[in-house]
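Case study 2.
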Amino acid sequence: ASDTWVSSMYYRIYYTIAICNEFLRNAGDDKIAGFSEAEQQEIRVFAAEARFLRTLAYSHAMDLFGHVPFVTENDQVSAFFPPRITRAELFDYVETELKAIETILPEPFANEYGRASRAAAWTLLAKNYLNASVYTGTERNADCITYCNKVIGSGFALEADYSKLFNADNDRRTQNEIIFPIQSDAAKTTTWGGMTYLVNGPILGSMNSPDYGVTSGWQSIRTLREFVALFPDATGEVDRRGAFWTDGQTLDVDDPSSSSQGYTIVKYTNLNDDGSYTTDDGLVNTDFPLFRLADVYLMYAEATVRGGAGGDAATALGYVNQLRERAYGNTGGNIGAAALTLDFLLAERGRELFWECVRRTDLIRFGRFTGGDYLWQWKGGTVEGSATDARFDLYPIPATDLAANPNLIQHTGY
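Prediction:
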């Protein structure tokens, strides 16, 4: 409860919520009456986008922290103890908000780059529905399929070159695969976190940094043998998503402080489509693809395999094989209907969506994040991995917020 990283995420969520609330306090009809009708309509769209961003932040709170404080634009700004909302109640709130703004947000492809469209709202609904059994205890797989179909039917298509989804020109992918990005610009969003870290972090001293669009690597991100084992080989010659850097590296990580232990894999680069790059002290222009079509394909497939009404097994198989054909460059990696199982889909999500902030949520949904049935190196703080307590499926409410707000209750076990 006193961990800096946990509290930083928690307070960043509520910082976002506070900004959205303040905008909405000033965007009500009474506050915008002095604007022209066209301007008022534009402000209402801005307000819908603020509500979307607030639901995104609350979705993160629901996923990471469970039962949390709840505040909207209707609450007072002065000294105030926000009430505690349960995880299930927050799920209902987010669902209601997203459906309320669905028709106010612009159509897919109609909004400015980096801003939310209806497709972003549909994707967030689909994600929450897929995880509803965790958040509320009730499966909503049929609803997940419904909203996946809305996204899939709205005109998005897979980018032919997987690597171009994660380079410095990936802002050009929004007319096909990327549904909602988090923008990064070396000149305008200067930071040593975010995409700067994801691009520079995995580049080791034995690698040529300019090959990835930066001047030097940070040697700080490596991967574990269990992830390497998801791929047919470590070279990327079979499945191009799994091209690991192995020179001078051991497969096992016995000492996490040693940069020579553990293979590394570079997913994000600061290279433009033509191979050139522009960087300033390692800062990058690569955007983070928060929502993309490949994830929607895999959500549809999983919800279908889980028995969601409205899903079609042949369609689900087709979506999965489209991703594998892109990864393999041919049909050699295609699977048959019998292989489309939940275990396969969990592994395929790992191959397709690594470093896209979904793995923890996926493992919890599959019942494999905690406990001892699914181990990896250093799980539980031991080299070979060991069982962990189920309380770690949720992060603790920060001790500072517990002390400040008498309405909050810490999760059992913390």
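The chain has a mean pLDDT of 96.
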